[in-house]
Design brief:
By secondary structure, the chain is of the alpha+beta class. 35% of the residues lie in helices and 25% in strands. It has a 5-stranded antiparallel sheet with strand order 4-5-10-6-7. Strand 12 and strand 13 form a beta hairpin. The longest helix has 20 residues. The chain is globular and about 55 Å long.
C-alpha cells in the first residue's frame, strides 16, 4: 500500500468532519483495502468507523427495521426477529461472500459502494428502504445513480437504513462461483405500494424492472412472471455470461422468487 494516515473517530460528527476534510471512510474494507493493496486506491487518510457504537445494531421501529450502517452481514443474517419478519433480507445477508466477508463486511459499506453485482442494493431498492445519512433521509429510488455511484454528497455518511416489513419477499441469486457476487440476483417484494422487483448483477447498476412489476401487480403468479420478455440490449456481457444469458436468468430467478413467496 501507499503510505496513509489512520484515524479512528469515536463519534459520527467526528467521522463526518474527517470525511468532509477529504478522508476516505473505512467500513468493512472488503473493497477498499483490496484496492489499496493493489495500489488502485491511494487515500491520504483513512477514517475507520469501527469505533462508533451508534452505527451498529438492529432495532424494530413500528413496521420497519432500522439497521446501523456498521452492522456486519453476519449480524443481519443471525438476527432472530429480523429473520422472522423479513426472512428474505436475513437470507440475503447469510449468502454474501464467505464467512470472512460476512464477519467483516457491513450494510452501509456495501450500499455506499454500490457495486453493480452486490446483493444489498437490490434489497434496499425492492423493499423501498430509506437511507439515513448525516445530512438527510434518502428514498431508495433516489439513492442509486449508476455504477459505484450514489446520491451521497462529499462527506455525507450513511448512519442507518430502515427496511419496511413486506407482505412477502424473496431474493434469488445466481452466484458467480469465483467471487460469490451475483451474476444475476433478483429481489421480489410485495410492499404497501405494490410489487417491486430489483435486479443486480445484470446491468451497470441495480435497477427496478417495470415490465415484471406491472405483470406481477396484475397477477402475482409464476406464469405472469414467465410471460414477460426481458430485453437484453442494455445488459452486461462478459466472459462469465452473455447479455442474453443474463436476460434469461432475470426471468428464471424472478419466477423462482415468486414461487418461494407463494410457498
Amino acid at each position: 500500500m501507499y503510505a496513509f494516515t489512520y484515524e479512528r473517530p469515536t463519534s459520527v460528527d467526528q467521522a463526518a468532519r474527517l470525511a468532509a476534510g477529504g478522508a476516505k471512510v473505512l467500513a468493512g474494507g472488503q473493497t477498499l483495502l483490496a484496492s489499496m493493496k493493489q495500489r488502485l486506491s491511494q487515500p491520504n487518510t483513512l477514517a475507520d468507523l469501527a469505533g462508533i457504537p451508534e452505527l451498529s445494531g438492529i432495532c424494530r421501529e413500528g413496521d420497519a427495521f432500522v439497521i446501523g450502517a456498521m452492522t456486519r452481514h453476519r449480524e443481519v443474517a443471525d438476527h432472530a426477529e429480523l429473520r422472522s419478519a423479513i426472512p428474505a433480507l436475513a437470507d440475503l445477508a447469510a449468502h454474501i461472500g464467505d464467512r470472512q466477508v460476512r464477519a467483516m463486511g457491513t450494510l452501509g459499506g456495501s450500499v455506499a459502494n454500490n457495486d453493480p453485482s452486490a446483493c444489498y442494493p437490490s434489497a434496499v431498492l425492492a423493499l423501498g428502504a430509506t437511507v439515513h445519512t448525516t445530512q438527510r433521509k434518502i428514498a431508495a429510488d433516489d439513492f442509486f445513480l449508476g455504477m459505484f455511484t450514489t446520491a451521497l454528497n462529499d462527506g455525507e455518511l450513511i448512519k442507518a437504513i430502515s427496511f419496511p416489513v413486506a407482505k412477502g419477499a424473496a431474493y434469488m441469486k445466481f452466484v458467480q462461483p469465483a467471487s460469490r457476487f451475483a451474476l444475476v440476483g433478483v429481489f421480489v417484494a410485495q410492499t404497501a405500494s405494490g410489487v417491486r422487483v430489483a435486479v443486480t448483477g445484470a446491468g451497470q447498476g441495480v435497477f427496478r424492472h417495470k415490465g415484471l412489476e406491472d405483470a406481477l401487480n396484475k397477477s402475482f403468479t409464476v406464469q405472469s412472471a414467465a410471460s414477460v420478455a426481458i430485453d437484453a440490449s442494455a445488459l452486461n456481457a462478459d466472459l462469465h455470461a452473455s447479455a442474453a444469458y443474463r436476460a434469461n436468468l432475470i426471468s428464471v430467478q424472478t419466477q423462482r422468487a415468486v414461487a418461494k413467496i407463494l410457498g
